[in-house]
Write a structure and sequence with these properties.
The protein has 12 helices and no strands. It starts with a helix and ends in a 9-residue tail after the last helix. The chain has a domain at 95-235: MetI-like (MetI-like fold, Orthogonal Bundle), CATH 1.10.3720.10. The chain is mostly helical and 289 residues long. The chain has helices at 3-11, 18-23, 47-61, 73-85, 88-120, 122-137, 144-151, 155-179, 183-191, 196-230, 239-248, 252-280.
Length: 289
C-alpha cells in the first residue's frame, strides 16, 4: 500500500494494517426491529381467555376463590355436561341464538339503510341524524317499559329491543365511513358518467365497507348485551331465563354456565366478523396485517 493510500485510510479512521484488515471478518449489519405489532398469531384471540381460565383454575385449586361464590372450572364443566345430557342447554341456546340473530339482522338492515339515506343526502342527514343521535343517548334497555306497552311481553318486544341496540353502532360507523370517502372518487364517477345506482354500487358501498364492518363488531356485542336483559323479562326459555331460574334456587354453577355461554358467543361472533373484515379488506395495508 502506498503512503498516499495509507494516509487516506488514516484520515477515514481505519489505521489497521493491511494483513489485519484482510484477516478480519466484516461485522454483520443489525436487523432493524419492526415497529408494528408483528405477524398475526394463530388463534391469538384465544390467548386472553385461556390465561383467564388458567388463573381461575389456579385460584380455585389453591383455595383462594370461595367455591360458593365462584365454583371451580371443573365444577362448571360438570354442570354444563349435565345440562347438555338432559337437553336443557341446547334448547335454551337455540332460542337465544334465534332472538339474537333476528335482532341483529333487523338492526343491521335498519342501520345500513338509514346511514345511506343520511350519508348521501344533506336533507336525509337533517331528517335522520338528529333522531338517531337522540336514540344513541337513550339506552335501549331504558325503553323496555315503553316497548312492553307497545308490543307486549312476547318475542316481538325482545327482538325489537335487540334491534334497537344494534342499529345505532351500525349507523354511526357506516355513516362515518361514507363521509370519509375521498371526494376524488366522486369526481371520477362524474367524469365517467356513472348513474346513481352504479355510483352507490362501485364507489359508496366499497368505501363504506370498513366503517360498516367496524359497526358490525359493535352491533354483535350490543345484540348479546341486550339479549341478556330481555331474556329475564317474563321469558319462558333462553339462556337468560335459565340463569334467572337458577338464581331463584341459588344454583351459582348454572348461572356461571350461562355467563360462559354468553361470553363464548360474544367471543366467537366477534372473531367471525374480524375474519370477514380481514378477507374483505385484504387490499388495505394496515398494522392489523
Amino acid at each position: 500500500m502506498s503512503t498516499t493510500a495509507f494516509e487516506q485510510r488514516a484520515a477515514a479512521g481505519t489505521t489497521t494494517a493491511p494483513d489485519e484488515t484482510a484477516g478480519s471478518s466484516r461485522p454483520r449489519p443489525r436487523t432493524r426491529k419492526r415497529l408494528g405489532p408483528g405477524r398475526p398469531v394463530p388463534f391469538g384471540w384465544a390467548l386472553g381467555p385461556l390465561l383467564l381460565l388458567a388463573v381461575w383454575a389456579a385460584g380455585s385449586a389453591a383455595g383462594l376463590i370461595d367455591a360458593r361464590s365462584l365454583p371451580a372450572p371443573w365444577v362448571i364443566a360438570g354442570t354444563a355436561g349435565d345440562l347438555l345430557a338432559d337437553g336443557r342447554l341446547q334448547s335454551h341456546f337455540t332460542t337465544s341464538a334465534q332472538r339474537a340473530l333476528l335482532g341483529l339482522a333487523f338492526g343491521t338492515v335498519a342501520g345500513l339503510l338509514l346511514a345511506l339515506v343520511s350519508g348521501l343526502s344533506r336533507i336525509g342527514e337533517g331528517l335522520v341524524d338528529g333522531p338517531v343521535q337522540i336514540k344513541r343517548a337513550i339506552p335501549s334497555l331504558a325503553l323496555i317499559p315503553l316497548l312492553v306497552l307497545w308490543f307486549g311481553i312476547g318475542e316481538t318486544m325482545k327482538v325489537v329491543t335487540i334491534a334497537l341496540g344494534v342499529f345505532v353502532p351500525i349507523y354511526i360507523h357506516t355513516h362515518n365511513g361514507l363521509r370519509t370517502i375521498d371526494n376524488r372518487y366522486a369526481e371520477l364517477a362524474e367524469t365517467v358518467r356513472l348513474n346513481r345506482l352504479r355510483f352507490i354500487r362501485h364507489v359508496v358501498l366499497p368505501g363504506a365497507l370498513p366503517g360498516f364492518l367496524l359497526g358490525l363488531r359493535f352491533g354483535v356485542t350490543a345484540a348479546w348485551l341486550a339479549l341478556v336483559v330481555v331474556e329475564q323479562v317474563n321469558a319462558t326459555s333462553g339462556i337468560g331465563y335459565m340463569m334467572e331460574l337458577a338464581r331463584t334456587y341459588g344454583q351459582t354453577d348454572v348461572i356461571i354456565v350461562g355467563l360462559v355461554v354468553y361470553g363464548l358467543l360474544g367471543l366467537v361472533s366477534d372473531a367471525l366478523v374480524r375474519l370477514v373484515e380481514r378477507r374483505a379488506l385484504s387490499w388495505r395495508r394496515t398494522l392489523a396485517g
